[in-house]
Input
Amino acid sequence: MDVLKPAEASAAPTLRERDQIDDRFKWDLSKIYPDWNAWQHAYAELNRKIDEFAALRGSLAKGASALLAAFALRDEIGQLEYKVWYFASLCYDQDQRDNQANAKRQEVQILFAKAAQASAWFDPELLAIPLETVRGWMDSDSTLAIYRFAIEDLYRQQEHVLDDKGERLLSLASRFSSSPNDAYAALSTADVKHPTVVLPSGVESTLTYGQYRAILATNPNQADRAAAFHEFHKVYDATINTYSTLYNSVLQRDWFHAQARGYRSTLEAALHGNNIPTAVVENLIEQAKAGTDPLRRYHRLRKRILGLDSYHSYDTAIPLVEFDRRYPYDTVVEGLPASVEALGADYQRQMRDVLNGQVIDVYENPGKRSGAYSAPVYGSQPYMLLNYNDTLDAAFTLAHEMGHSMHTVLSHASQPFVYAGYTIFVAEVPSTLSEALFLDYMLERTSDEHERIVLLQHAIDGIVTTFYTQVMFADYELQAHRLVEAGKPVTADVLGEIYFGLLQAYHGDSLDYDEEAHITWARIPHFYSTPYYVYQYATCFASSAQLMKQLTTGSDADRREAIARYLTLLKAGGSDHPMSLLKRAGVDLSQPETVQAVVQQLDVLVTELEHTVAGAQR
Ligand SMILES: [Zn+2]
Output
Protein backbone atom coordinates (compact mmCIF):
# COMPACT_ATOMS: atom_id res chain seq x y z
CA MET A 1 0.00 0.00 0.00
CA ASP A 2 1.22 3.45 -0.99
CA VAL A 3 0.31 4.68 2.52
CA LEU A 4 3.24 2.80 3.99
CA LYS A 5 5.89 4.52 1.86
CA PRO A 6 8.33 6.49 4.04
CA ALA A 7 8.54 10.25 3.60
CA GLU A 8 11.79 12.16 3.16
CA ALA A 9 14.03 12.57 6.18
CA SER A 10 16.91 14.78 7.22
CA ALA A 11 19.37 14.17 10.02
CA ALA A 12 18.24 14.53 13.64
CA PRO A 13 20.23 16.92 15.86
CA THR A 14 23.27 15.21 17.37
CA LEU A 15 24.00 15.11 21.09
CA ARG A 16 26.31 18.02 21.96
CA GLU A 17 28.05 19.16 25.12
CA ARG A 18 26.17 22.03 26.72
CA ASP A 19 28.84 24.63 25.97
CA GLN A 20 28.70 23.72 22.27
CA ILE A 21 25.02 24.66 22.06
CA ASP A 22 24.25 28.21 20.91
CA ASP A 23 23.08 30.44 23.79
CA ARG A 24 19.83 31.21 22.08
CA PHE A 25 18.79 27.58 22.57
CA LYS A 26 19.56 27.66 26.31
CA TRP A 27 17.65 29.26 29.13
CA ASP A 28 19.29 32.14 30.93
CA LEU A 29 18.91 31.55 34.66
CA SER A 30 20.63 34.85 35.49
CA LYS A 31 17.20 36.46 34.98
CA ILE A 32 16.23 34.75 38.26
CA TYR A 33 19.47 35.49 40.16
CA PRO A 34 22.68 36.82 38.59
CA ASP A 35 24.81 34.18 40.37
CA TRP A 36 25.01 31.73 43.30
CA ASN A 37 26.07 34.58 45.57
CA ALA A 38 22.82 36.42 44.98
CA TRP A 39 20.96 33.13 45.42
CA GLN A 40 22.72 32.54 48.76
CA HIS A 41 21.66 35.98 49.86
CA ALA A 42 18.03 35.26 48.99
CA TYR A 43 18.25 31.89 50.74
CA ALA A 44 19.36 33.60 53.94
CA GLU A 45 16.57 36.14 53.61
CA LEU A 46 14.04 33.35 53.18
CA ASN A 47 15.39 31.60 56.25
CA ARG A 48 15.02 34.83 58.27
CA LYS A 49 11.45 35.38 57.11
CA ILE A 50 10.50 31.82 58.04
CA ASP A 51 11.68 32.54 61.60
CA GLU A 52 9.74 35.81 61.58
CA PHE A 53 6.62 33.95 60.56
CA ALA A 54 6.97 31.41 63.36
CA ALA A 55 7.17 34.35 65.78
CA LEU A 56 3.72 35.57 64.70
CA ARG A 57 2.12 32.58 66.39
CA GLY A 58 -0.63 33.65 68.76
CA SER A 59 -1.12 37.04 67.08
CA LEU A 60 -3.99 36.40 64.65
CA ALA A 61 -6.88 37.03 67.07
CA LYS A 62 -5.65 40.60 67.60
CA GLY A 63 -7.54 41.78 64.54
CA ALA A 64 -7.50 42.66 60.87
CA SER A 65 -4.04 44.22 60.73
CA ALA A 66 -2.40 41.31 62.56
CA LEU A 67 -4.03 38.81 60.21
CA LEU A 68 -3.06 40.88 57.18
CA ALA A 69 0.55 41.11 58.39
CA ALA A 70 0.68 37.30 58.64
CA PHE A 71 -0.80 36.83 55.15
CA ALA A 72 1.59 39.41 53.69
CA LEU A 73 4.62 37.74 55.26
CA ARG A 74 3.37 34.34 54.09
CA ASP A 75 3.19 35.73 50.54
CA GLU A 76 6.72 37.16 50.76
CA ILE A 77 7.96 33.75 51.86
CA GLY A 78 6.04 32.03 49.06
CA GLN A 79 7.46 34.36 46.42
CA LEU A 80 11.00 33.88 47.63
CA GLU A 81 10.43 30.12 47.70
CA TYR A 82 9.62 30.08 43.98
CA LYS A 83 12.82 31.84 42.96
CA VAL A 84 15.13 30.16 45.46
CA TRP A 85 13.78 26.71 44.56
CA TYR A 86 13.70 27.08 40.81
CA PHE A 87 17.12 28.69 40.48
CA ALA A 88 18.69 25.63 42.11
CA SER A 89 16.30 23.11 40.60
CA LEU A 90 16.56 24.37 37.00
CA CYS A 91 20.31 24.60 37.31
CA TYR A 92 20.37 20.99 38.51
CA ASP A 93 18.09 19.81 35.68
CA GLN A 94 20.29 21.29 32.95
CA ASP A 95 23.06 18.94 34.11
CA GLN A 96 22.21 16.53 36.91
CA ARG A 97 25.86 15.59 37.27
CA ASP A 98 26.40 19.02 38.85
CA ASN A 99 26.95 18.17 42.52
CA GLN A 100 26.98 21.78 43.64
CA ALA A 101 23.53 22.42 42.16
CA ASN A 102 22.28 19.14 43.60
CA ALA A 103 23.50 20.11 47.08
CA LYS A 104 21.87 23.56 46.83
CA ARG A 105 18.65 21.98 45.66
CA GLN A 106 18.64 19.70 48.68
CA GLU A 107 19.36 22.67 50.95
CA VAL A 108 16.18 24.28 49.65
CA GLN A 109 14.20 21.10 50.34
CA ILE A 110 15.46 21.11 53.90
CA LEU A 111 14.50 24.77 54.27
CA PHE A 112 11.03 24.00 52.88
CA ALA A 113 10.53 21.33 55.53
CA LYS A 114 11.46 23.93 58.14
CA ALA A 115 9.00 26.41 56.59
CA ALA A 116 6.21 23.85 56.75
CA GLN A 117 6.85 23.28 60.44
CA ALA A 118 7.19 26.98 61.16
CA SER A 119 3.79 27.70 59.61
CA ALA A 120 1.80 24.66 60.80
CA TRP A 121 0.15 26.79 63.50
CA PHE A 122 -1.43 29.20 61.03
CA ASP A 123 -4.52 27.36 59.73
CA PRO A 124 -5.73 25.99 63.11
CA GLU A 125 -5.18 29.39 64.75
CA LEU A 126 -7.15 31.18 62.03
CA LEU A 127 -9.94 28.59 62.13
CA ALA A 128 -10.27 29.09 65.89
CA ILE A 129 -11.57 32.60 65.10
CA PRO A 130 -15.26 32.54 64.09
CA LEU A 131 -15.69 33.10 60.34
CA GLU A 132 -18.17 35.92 61.03
CA THR A 133 -15.47 37.83 62.92
CA VAL A 134 -12.99 37.41 60.05
CA ARG A 135 -15.67 38.45 57.56
CA GLY A 136 -16.16 41.65 59.56
CA TRP A 137 -12.41 42.33 59.36
CA MET A 138 -12.41 41.74 55.59
CA ASP A 139 -15.36 44.10 55.13
CA SER A 140 -13.47 46.87 56.88
CA ASP A 141 -10.04 46.25 55.30
CA SER A 142 -9.88 46.13 51.51
CA THR A 143 -6.34 44.69 51.44
CA LEU A 144 -7.32 41.84 53.74
CA ALA A 145 -10.37 41.30 51.51
CA ILE A 146 -8.03 40.14 48.73
CA TYR A 147 -7.66 36.94 50.75
CA ARG A 148 -11.43 36.36 50.95
CA PHE A 149 -11.58 33.32 48.68
CA ALA A 150 -8.54 31.68 50.34
CA ILE A 151 -9.98 32.31 53.80
CA GLU A 152 -13.50 31.17 53.06
CA ASP A 153 -12.22 28.07 51.32
CA LEU A 154 -10.19 27.17 54.38
CA TYR A 155 -13.35 27.40 56.52
CA ARG A 156 -15.27 25.35 53.94
CA GLN A 157 -12.72 22.54 54.22
CA GLN A 158 -13.01 22.80 57.99
CA GLU A 159 -16.40 21.04 57.76
CA HIS A 160 -14.64 17.70 57.62
CA VAL A 161 -11.93 18.42 60.16
CA LEU A 162 -12.37 16.51 63.43
CA ASP A 163 -11.78 17.67 66.98
CA ASP A 164 -8.23 17.57 68.42
CA LYS A 165 -8.59 14.00 69.62
CA GLY A 166 -9.93 12.82 66.27
CA GLU A 167 -7.27 14.66 64.28
CA ARG A 168 -4.54 13.25 66.49
CA LEU A 169 -5.84 9.73 65.95
CA LEU A 170 -6.00 10.26 62.18
CA SER A 171 -2.50 11.73 62.09
CA LEU A 172 -1.20 8.65 63.95
CA ALA A 173 -3.02 6.37 61.52
CA SER A 174 -1.70 8.34 58.54
CA ARG A 175 1.69 6.70 58.95
CA PHE A 176 0.16 3.52 57.52
CA SER A 177 -1.50 5.30 54.64
CA SER A 178 1.37 4.97 52.23
CA SER A 179 2.00 1.26 52.94
CA PRO A 180 -0.09 -0.21 50.11
CA ASN A 181 1.58 2.02 47.53
CA ASP A 182 5.04 1.46 49.02
CA ALA A 183 4.48 -2.29 48.87
CA TYR A 184 3.16 -2.01 45.31
CA ALA A 185 6.28 -0.09 44.29
CA ALA A 186 8.52 -2.68 45.93
CA LEU A 187 6.66 -5.59 44.32
CA SER A 188 6.34 -4.08 40.84
CA THR A 189 9.69 -2.28 40.63
CA ALA A 190 12.30 -3.12 43.27
CA ASP A 191 11.62 -6.87 43.53
CA VAL A 192 10.38 -7.55 40.03
CA LYS A 193 12.31 -9.95 37.80
CA HIS A 194 11.94 -8.78 34.22
CA PRO A 195 11.89 -11.81 31.94
CA THR A 196 14.38 -12.02 29.10
CA VAL A 197 12.60 -13.54 26.14
CA VAL A 198 13.41 -14.49 22.58
CA LEU A 199 10.66 -13.06 20.37
CA PRO A 200 9.36 -15.10 17.38
CA SER A 201 11.47 -12.99 15.00
CA GLY A 202 14.57 -14.09 16.91
CA VAL A 203 15.22 -10.81 18.71
CA GLU A 204 16.09 -11.17 22.39
CA SER A 205 14.54 -8.63 24.76
CA THR A 206 14.43 -7.99 28.50
CA LEU A 207 10.87 -6.90 29.15
CA THR A 208 11.13 -3.87 31.40
CA TYR A 209 8.06 -1.66 31.09
CA GLY A 210 10.01 0.69 28.79
CA GLN A 211 11.16 -2.14 26.52
CA TYR A 212 7.67 -3.61 26.47
CA ARG A 213 6.11 -0.28 25.47
CA ALA A 214 8.79 0.21 22.81
CA ILE A 215 7.96 -3.17 21.25
CA LEU A 216 4.24 -2.35 21.15
CA ALA A 217 4.93 1.09 19.66
CA THR A 218 7.60 0.19 17.09
CA ASN A 219 7.78 -3.54 16.31
CA PRO A 220 5.90 -4.15 13.02
CA ASN A 221 5.75 -7.90 13.64
CA GLN A 222 2.44 -8.81 15.29
CA ALA A 223 3.75 -12.15 16.57
CA ASP A 224 6.53 -10.29 18.41
CA ARG A 225 4.05 -7.90 19.98
CA ALA A 226 1.78 -10.77 21.01
CA ALA A 227 4.66 -12.68 22.60
CA ALA A 228 5.83 -9.57 24.47
CA PHE A 229 2.28 -9.00 25.73
CA HIS A 230 1.85 -12.57 26.98
CA GLU A 231 5.29 -12.71 28.63
CA PHE A 232 4.94 -9.27 30.20
CA HIS A 233 1.61 -10.18 31.82
CA LYS A 234 3.00 -13.44 33.23
CA VAL A 235 5.06 -11.34 35.66
CA TYR A 236 1.88 -9.85 37.15
CA ASP A 237 -0.05 -13.10 36.96
CA ALA A 238 2.58 -14.80 39.16
CA THR A 239 1.72 -12.53 42.12
CA ILE A 240 -1.77 -11.39 41.14
CA ASN A 241 -3.25 -12.17 44.57
CA THR A 242 -0.65 -9.97 46.21
CA TYR A 243 -1.57 -7.13 43.84
CA SER A 244 -5.27 -7.52 44.60
CA THR A 245 -4.57 -7.59 48.35
CA LEU A 246 -2.56 -4.37 48.05
CA TYR A 247 -5.23 -2.72 45.96
CA ASN A 248 -7.88 -3.81 48.45
CA SER A 249 -5.79 -2.03 51.13
CA VAL A 250 -5.90 1.15 49.04
CA LEU A 251 -9.68 0.87 48.81
CA GLN A 252 -10.10 0.12 52.52
CA ARG A 253 -7.83 3.04 53.45
CA ASP A 254 -9.78 5.46 51.28
CA TRP A 255 -13.10 4.29 52.72
CA PHE A 256 -11.72 4.53 56.26
CA HIS A 257 -10.67 8.15 55.71
CA ALA A 258 -13.91 9.07 53.99
CA GLN A 259 -15.99 7.64 56.82
CA ALA A 260 -13.78 9.07 59.56
CA ARG A 261 -14.21 12.56 58.09
CA GLY A 262 -17.94 12.18 57.50
CA TYR A 263 -18.09 11.86 53.72
CA ARG A 264 -20.78 9.74 52.12
CA SER A 265 -18.38 8.13 49.64
CA THR A 266 -14.71 7.87 48.73
CA LEU A 267 -15.42 9.86 45.57
CA GLU A 268 -16.99 12.68 47.55
CA ALA A 269 -13.95 12.74 49.85
CA ALA A 270 -11.56 12.85 46.90
CA LEU A 271 -13.36 15.72 45.15
CA HIS A 272 -14.08 17.89 48.16
CA GLY A 273 -10.71 19.66 48.14
CA ASN A 274 -11.44 21.29 44.78
CA ASN A 275 -15.16 21.59 45.55
CA ILE A 276 -16.12 19.40 42.61
CA PRO A 277 -19.53 17.68 42.64
CA THR A 278 -19.44 13.88 42.27
CA ALA A 279 -21.86 14.25 39.35
CA VAL A 280 -18.94 15.53 37.27
CA VAL A 281 -17.15 12.18 37.37
CA GLU A 282 -20.39 10.24 36.95
CA ASN A 283 -21.36 12.38 33.94
CA LEU A 284 -17.88 11.96 32.46
CA ILE A 285 -18.08 8.18 32.70
CA GLU A 286 -21.63 7.96 31.42
CA GLN A 287 -21.04 10.16 28.36
CA ALA A 288 -17.70 8.58 27.43
CA LYS A 289 -19.27 5.12 27.59
CA ALA A 290 -22.14 6.30 25.42
CA GLY A 291 -19.70 7.85 22.94
CA THR A 292 -17.49 4.90 22.04
CA ASP A 293 -18.65 4.64 18.42
CA PRO A 294 -15.82 6.74 16.90
CA LEU A 295 -13.32 4.90 19.13
CA ARG A 296 -14.47 1.56 17.69
CA ARG A 297 -14.43 2.91 14.15
CA TYR A 298 -10.84 4.02 14.67
CA HIS A 299 -9.75 0.57 15.82
CA ARG A 300 -11.55 -1.14 12.95
CA LEU A 301 -9.82 1.26 10.52
CA ARG A 302 -6.46 0.52 12.13
CA LYS A 303 -7.01 -3.20 11.78
CA ARG A 304 -7.71 -2.71 8.07
CA ILE A 305 -4.77 -0.36 7.38
CA LEU A 306 -2.36 -2.58 9.29
CA GLY A 307 -3.68 -5.57 7.33
CA LEU A 308 -4.27 -7.73 10.42
CA ASP A 309 -6.60 -10.74 10.63
CA SER A 310 -7.12 -10.24 14.34
CA TYR A 311 -6.65 -7.01 16.27
CA HIS A 312 -5.58 -7.03 19.93
CA SER A 313 -4.76 -4.49 22.63
CA TYR A 314 -1.06 -4.98 21.72
CA ASP A 315 -1.83 -3.72 18.20
CA THR A 316 -3.24 -0.36 19.26
CA ALA A 317 0.04 1.60 19.56
CA ILE A 318 1.82 0.78 16.32
CA PRO A 319 2.03 3.68 13.79
CA LEU A 320 -0.14 3.46 10.68
CA VAL A 321 2.58 4.73 8.35
CA GLU A 322 6.35 4.91 8.35
CA PHE A 323 7.29 8.53 8.66
CA ASP A 324 10.33 10.38 9.87
CA ARG A 325 10.06 13.92 8.63
CA ARG A 326 12.02 16.37 10.78
CA TYR A 327 10.49 19.46 12.37
CA PRO A 328 13.42 21.77 13.11
CA TYR A 329 12.95 23.91 16.22
CA ASP A 330 13.18 27.27 14.41
CA THR A 331 10.41 26.29 11.98
CA VAL A 332 8.08 25.27 14.80
CA VAL A 333 8.88 28.42 16.78
CA GLU A 334 7.83 30.43 13.75
CA GLY A 335 4.59 28.50 13.29
CA LEU A 336 3.49 28.35 16.91
CA PRO A 337 2.36 32.01 17.31
CA ALA A 338 0.58 31.73 13.96
CA SER A 339 -1.28 28.66 15.23
CA VAL A 340 -2.85 30.68 18.08
CA GLU A 341 -4.14 33.47 15.85
CA ALA A 342 -7.65 32.60 17.06
CA LEU A 343 -6.63 33.86 20.52
CA GLY A 344 -5.80 37.38 19.36
CA ALA A 345 -2.77 39.55 18.63
CA ASP A 346 -1.91 40.24 22.28
CA TYR A 347 -1.72 36.56 23.02
CA GLN A 348 0.51 36.01 19.99
CA ARG A 349 2.82 38.85 21.03
CA GLN A 350 3.11 37.50 24.57
CA MET A 351 3.89 34.07 23.17
CA ARG A 352 6.65 35.52 20.98
CA ASP A 353 8.09 37.17 24.09
CA VAL A 354 8.32 33.77 25.77
CA LEU A 355 9.80 32.15 22.67
CA ASN A 356 12.43 34.88 22.31
CA GLY A 357 13.00 35.45 26.01
CA GLN A 358 15.85 32.98 26.58
CA VAL A 359 13.70 30.98 28.98
CA ILE A 360 13.56 27.76 26.94
CA ASP A 361 16.22 25.08 27.22
CA VAL A 362 15.79 23.39 23.88
CA TYR A 363 18.22 20.57 23.17
CA GLU A 364 19.44 17.54 25.04
CA ASN A 365 22.95 17.57 26.50
CA PRO A 366 24.79 15.01 28.63
CA GLY A 367 23.37 14.98 32.17
CA LYS A 368 20.20 16.91 31.31
CA ARG A 369 16.90 15.81 32.81
CA SER A 370 14.72 13.89 30.38
CA GLY A 371 11.19 14.83 29.30
CA ALA A 372 9.71 18.32 29.23
CA TYR A 373 8.09 20.78 31.62
CA SER A 374 7.09 24.39 32.09
CA ALA A 375 8.23 25.82 35.43
CA PRO A 376 6.18 28.76 36.78
CA VAL A 377 8.94 30.86 38.33
CA TYR A 378 6.95 33.53 40.14
CA GLY A 379 8.66 36.92 40.12
CA SER A 380 10.60 35.98 37.00
CA GLN A 381 9.17 34.17 33.98
CA PRO A 382 7.94 30.69 33.10
CA TYR A 383 10.98 28.59 32.17
CA MET A 384 10.65 25.62 29.86
CA LEU A 385 12.76 22.48 29.67
CA LEU A 386 12.64 20.45 26.46
CA ASN A 387 14.66 17.65 24.92
CA TYR A 388 13.81 18.77 21.43
CA ASN A 389 14.73 16.13 18.83
CA ASP A 390 13.01 17.45 15.68
CA THR A 391 10.24 14.82 15.72
CA LEU A 392 6.55 15.56 15.39
CA ASP A 393 6.09 14.50 19.02
CA ALA A 394 8.68 17.08 20.07
CA ALA A 395 6.86 19.79 18.13
CA PHE A 396 3.60 18.96 19.90
CA THR A 397 5.36 18.79 23.25
CA LEU A 398 6.57 22.35 22.64
CA ALA A 399 3.00 23.42 21.80
CA HIS A 400 1.75 21.68 24.98
CA GLU A 401 4.32 23.26 27.32
CA MET A 402 3.74 26.62 25.66
CA GLY A 403 0.10 26.36 26.74
CA HIS A 404 1.28 25.96 30.34
CA SER A 405 3.75 28.85 30.02
CA MET A 406 1.13 31.21 28.61
CA HIS A 407 -1.24 30.27 31.43
CA THR A 408 1.53 31.20 33.86
CA VAL A 409 2.30 34.49 32.10
CA LEU A 410 -1.33 35.61 32.18
CA SER A 411 -2.13 34.33 35.64
CA HIS A 412 1.02 35.79 37.24
CA ALA A 413 0.43 39.16 35.58
CA SER A 414 -3.23 39.37 36.63
CA GLN A 415 -3.49 37.80 40.07
CA PRO A 416 -2.14 38.69 43.49
CA PHE A 417 0.43 36.12 44.61
CA VAL A 418 -2.02 34.13 46.74
CA TYR A 419 -4.00 33.14 43.60
CA ALA A 420 -1.19 33.09 41.03
CA GLY A 421 -0.98 29.28 41.01
CA TYR A 422 -3.58 27.06 39.37
CA THR A 423 -4.82 23.54 40.13
CA ILE A 424 -4.29 20.49 37.94
CA PHE A 425 -8.05 20.49 37.26
CA VAL A 426 -7.54 23.60 35.11
CA ALA A 427 -3.84 23.29 34.24
CA GLU A 428 -4.15 20.78 31.41
CA VAL A 429 -6.84 22.82 29.64
CA PRO A 430 -4.54 25.43 28.01
CA SER A 431 -1.85 22.86 27.22
CA THR A 432 -4.37 20.58 25.48
CA LEU A 433 -5.97 23.50 23.68
CA SER A 434 -2.58 24.74 22.53
CA GLU A 435 -1.92 21.31 20.99
CA ALA A 436 -5.35 21.27 19.31
CA LEU A 437 -4.75 24.69 17.72
CA PHE A 438 -1.31 23.61 16.55
CA LEU A 439 -2.79 20.47 15.00
CA ASP A 440 -5.36 22.53 13.07
CA TYR A 441 -2.58 24.79 11.85
CA MET A 442 -0.48 21.85 10.67
CA LEU A 443 -3.41 20.09 9.00
CA GLU A 444 -4.33 23.26 7.12
CA ARG A 445 -0.85 23.55 5.69
CA THR A 446 0.09 20.02 4.76
CA SER A 447 -0.38 18.73 1.25
CA ASP A 448 1.41 15.46 1.97
CA GLU A 449 -0.95 12.55 2.60
CA HIS A 450 1.56 10.73 4.81
CA GLU A 451 1.97 13.75 7.00
CA ARG A 452 -1.79 14.19 7.17
CA ILE A 453 -2.24 10.59 8.33
CA VAL A 454 0.49 10.97 10.95
CA LEU A 455 -1.04 14.23 12.22
CA LEU A 456 -4.49 12.70 12.43
CA GLN A 457 -3.17 9.61 14.19
CA HIS A 458 -1.30 11.82 16.64
CA ALA A 459 -4.47 13.73 17.48
CA ILE A 460 -6.66 10.63 17.67
CA ASP A 461 -4.19 8.73 19.85
CA GLY A 462 -4.11 11.75 22.15
CA ILE A 463 -7.88 11.51 22.60
CA VAL A 464 -7.77 7.73 23.01
CA THR A 465 -5.05 7.73 25.67
CA THR A 466 -5.82 10.99 27.46
CA PHE A 467 -9.58 10.79 27.34
CA TYR A 468 -11.04 7.29 26.80
CA THR A 469 -8.34 5.34 28.64
CA GLN A 470 -8.36 7.75 31.59
CA VAL A 471 -12.16 7.68 31.84
CA MET A 472 -12.03 3.89 31.74
CA PHE A 473 -9.48 4.00 34.56
CA ALA A 474 -11.72 6.37 36.53
CA ASP A 475 -14.64 4.02 35.92
CA TYR A 476 -12.58 1.10 37.23
CA GLU A 477 -11.54 3.02 40.35
CA LEU A 478 -15.09 4.06 41.06
CA GLN A 479 -16.48 0.53 40.67
CA ALA A 480 -13.73 -0.94 42.84
CA HIS A 481 -14.20 1.65 45.58
CA ARG A 482 -17.95 1.07 45.51
CA LEU A 483 -17.40 -2.63 46.24
CA VAL A 484 -15.75 -1.72 49.50
CA GLU A 485 -18.32 0.95 50.31
CA ALA A 486 -21.03 -1.70 49.88
CA GLY A 487 -19.16 -4.17 52.09
CA LYS A 488 -18.45 -6.60 49.25
CA PRO A 489 -15.31 -8.76 48.89
CA VAL A 490 -12.41 -7.64 46.68
CA THR A 491 -10.41 -10.42 45.03
CA ALA A 492 -8.19 -10.71 41.97
CA ASP A 493 -11.10 -12.39 40.15
CA VAL A 494 -13.53 -9.61 41.02
CA LEU A 495 -11.09 -6.87 39.94
CA GLY A 496 -10.28 -8.78 36.76
CA GLU A 497 -13.97 -9.00 35.86
CA ILE A 498 -14.43 -5.26 36.36
CA TYR A 499 -11.44 -4.39 34.18
CA PHE A 500 -12.25 -6.92 31.46
CA GLY A 501 -15.89 -5.83 31.44
CA LEU A 502 -14.82 -2.22 30.96
CA LEU A 503 -12.50 -3.08 28.07
CA GLN A 504 -15.46 -4.78 26.39
CA ALA A 505 -17.87 -1.96 27.19
CA TYR A 506 -15.57 0.56 25.51
CA HIS A 507 -14.28 -1.46 22.56
CA GLY A 508 -17.13 -3.85 21.73
CA ASP A 509 -16.24 -6.08 18.79
CA SER A 510 -13.50 -3.74 17.52
CA LEU A 511 -10.96 -5.62 19.63
CA ASP A 512 -10.05 -9.31 19.97
CA TYR A 513 -9.66 -10.02 23.66
CA ASP A 514 -6.92 -11.90 25.46
CA GLU A 515 -7.35 -13.62 28.82
CA GLU A 516 -4.44 -11.57 30.20
CA ALA A 517 -6.53 -8.42 29.92
CA HIS A 518 -8.10 -9.61 33.19
CA ILE A 519 -4.88 -8.64 35.00
CA THR A 520 -3.85 -5.42 33.25
CA TRP A 521 -5.28 -3.37 36.15
CA ALA A 522 -2.54 -4.75 38.42
CA ARG A 523 0.23 -2.75 36.75
CA ILE A 524 -1.38 0.75 36.61
CA PRO A 525 0.65 2.83 39.11
CA HIS A 526 -1.96 5.59 39.49
CA PHE A 527 -4.46 3.13 41.00
CA TYR A 528 -2.12 2.64 43.95
CA SER A 529 -0.41 6.03 44.23
CA THR A 530 -3.14 8.58 43.52
CA PRO A 531 -6.70 7.22 43.48
CA TYR A 532 -9.29 9.38 41.71
CA TYR A 533 -6.62 11.48 40.02
CA VAL A 534 -6.60 10.44 36.37
CA TYR A 535 -10.16 11.58 35.64
CA GLN A 536 -8.78 15.14 35.65
CA TYR A 537 -6.88 14.48 32.43
CA ALA A 538 -10.20 13.58 30.85
CA THR A 539 -12.13 16.55 32.25
CA CYS A 540 -9.36 18.88 31.04
CA PHE A 541 -9.60 17.25 27.63
CA ALA A 542 -13.37 17.69 27.56
CA SER A 543 -13.08 21.34 28.65
CA SER A 544 -10.51 22.01 25.99
CA ALA A 545 -12.63 20.33 23.29
CA GLN A 546 -15.61 22.46 24.28
CA LEU A 547 -13.49 25.65 24.25
CA MET A 548 -11.98 24.71 20.90
CA LYS A 549 -15.49 24.44 19.48
CA GLN A 550 -16.43 27.86 20.85
CA LEU A 551 -13.18 29.49 19.69
CA THR A 552 -13.29 28.20 16.13
CA THR A 553 -16.96 28.03 15.19
CA GLY A 554 -19.95 30.43 15.19
CA SER A 555 -20.17 34.10 14.28
CA ASP A 556 -17.31 36.58 14.67
CA ALA A 557 -19.05 38.09 17.68
CA ASP A 558 -19.48 34.64 19.30
CA ARG A 559 -15.83 33.87 18.73
CA ARG A 560 -14.70 37.21 20.16
CA GLU A 561 -16.70 36.51 23.28
CA ALA A 562 -15.29 33.00 23.51
CA ILE A 563 -11.73 34.40 23.28
CA ALA A 564 -12.43 36.94 26.02
CA ARG A 565 -13.90 34.23 28.27
CA TYR A 566 -10.95 31.92 27.64
CA LEU A 567 -8.35 34.60 28.38
CA THR A 568 -10.27 35.43 31.56
CA LEU A 569 -9.90 31.79 32.59
CA LEU A 570 -6.13 31.93 32.08
CA LYS A 571 -5.86 35.25 33.89
CA ALA A 572 -7.94 33.93 36.81
CA GLY A 573 -5.20 31.57 38.04
CA GLY A 574 -6.44 29.94 41.25
CA SER A 575 -8.74 32.75 42.35
CA ASP A 576 -11.81 30.51 42.57
CA HIS A 577 -12.82 26.85 42.56
CA PRO A 578 -11.96 25.23 39.21
CA MET A 579 -15.58 24.39 38.32
CA SER A 580 -16.60 28.04 38.79
CA LEU A 581 -13.64 29.28 36.74
CA LEU A 582 -14.46 26.89 33.90
CA LYS A 583 -18.16 27.76 34.01
CA ARG A 584 -17.29 31.42 33.50
CA ALA A 585 -15.22 30.37 30.49
CA GLY A 586 -18.29 28.67 29.04
CA VAL A 587 -17.54 25.11 30.13
CA ASP A 588 -19.94 23.26 32.41
CA LEU A 589 -18.49 19.87 33.22
CA SER A 590 -21.68 18.68 34.84
CA GLN A 591 -23.45 18.87 31.46
CA PRO A 592 -23.44 15.98 28.96
CA GLU A 593 -22.64 18.35 26.03
CA THR A 594 -19.21 19.20 27.43
CA VAL A 595 -18.12 15.57 27.39
CA GLN A 596 -19.83 14.97 24.08
CA ALA A 597 -17.59 17.67 22.55
CA VAL A 598 -14.66 15.21 22.76
CA VAL A 599 -16.70 12.45 21.18
CA GLN A 600 -17.60 14.83 18.31
CA GLN A 601 -13.96 15.91 17.99
CA LEU A 602 -12.91 12.26 17.68
CA ASP A 603 -15.69 11.56 15.23
CA VAL A 604 -14.51 14.37 12.93
CA LEU A 605 -10.88 13.22 13.13
CA VAL A 606 -11.67 9.56 12.44
CA THR A 607 -13.84 10.53 9.47
CA GLU A 608 -11.02 12.64 8.11
CA LEU A 609 -8.57 9.80 8.62
CA GLU A 610 -10.90 7.41 6.78
CA HIS A 611 -11.05 9.83 3.83
CA THR A 612 -7.32 10.50 3.80
CA VAL A 613 -6.52 6.80 3.84
CA ALA A 614 -9.04 6.13 1.06
CA GLY A 615 -7.39 8.96 -0.96
CA ALA A 616 -3.90 7.61 -0.38
CA GLN A 617 -4.97 4.13 -1.49
CA ARG A 618 -6.35 5.37 -4.81
ZN1 LIG B 1 0.86 19.30 30.79
